[in-house]
Amino acid sequence: xxxxxxxGASRDEKRQMKSASRLYAVQALFQxxxxxxxxxxxxxxxxxxxxxxxxDGEEMAEGNPNVFRALLEGAVESQxxxxxMTDRALVAKWPIDRIDPTLRALFxxxxxxxxxxxxxxKVVITEFVDVARAFFPEGKEAKxxxxxxxxxxxxxxxxxx
Length: 161
What we know:
Helix 1 crosses helix 2. The protein has helices spanning 11-35, 39-49, 65-77, 79-89, 101-116, 121-135, 140-156; strands at residues 54-55, 58-59. By secondary structure, it is mainly alpha-helical. Strand 1 (54-55) and strand 2 form a beta hairpin.
């Protein structure tokens, strides 16, 4: 299992590890839904085979296992609450079960981080909009994600606005 960088890691390295953990959390949540794997199985697979792994000469980003685990566990434990928040942010004709499964996983991971309350909502929104751009480089989904996450953040953390 990969370990987090030592305390001496630069601020930029720590930020990159958190960003990678967010991306991995979205991928893991998608994989859990798509393949009906358990939280424990997916978590172990990602921590063992993805964090910092090298595939075809390309090194995968190193993730922060604590951030990754917190997002996964938070998304699973609070899925009903997060899905309700997401539904309220979506238009009536597009409930959460009708949206792209990658976006559904993204909203669940972002919702978990918002509910935890340790990261400012604007940072969560910015980070997950960047994750959306990684999956959907054409851009329209990133705008959609920004709008939905803004609505969710105002519901989850109204005191922050």
